[in-house]
Amino acid sequence: MFVDELTPFMRELARQPVAFCGGFFSGLFRLDLTEDPVRSWLNKQGATPAAGAPDSANSAAPKGPKSIDIE
Question: What is the pLDDT, as a whole number, of residue 48?
Answer without folding.
Answer: 66
